[in-house]
Amino acid sequence: MAKKILIVEDDKMLLTIFQMFIQELGYEVAGLARTGEEALATASSNGDISCILMDIQLDGPMDGIATARALDKQTAAPVIFVSGGVEPALVPNCVLPNVYGLLTKPLYRNSLGMMIEFACAKYAMEH
Q: Looking at the predicted structure, is the pLDDT value of residue 115 above 90?
């Protein structure tokens, strides 16, 4: 059974690219969200999510870090953060129980696939 990935990205073009990468890697797209609120709603309506790919800098009142915190209480799935550039001071805020990776943009398909497999395996081992 293919892993189901929820993609949370506010840039429409990147959302489309990430969706294409996920599908090319043989995964299923569990949902697409452009805000933290949409991610929470999608996750609550789809309990069968294997992994969440999340931009740290999201439009709206909830950034990716706040969304990951809320998802930790709602969904049993590892989060992989994606960012165009992470300030070193922001890194400690990214260390959350449900966060299993951090990738920087530009995102490469093979790196994404390896990170998804790592995050899902580590999450399964720990839970």
A: yes
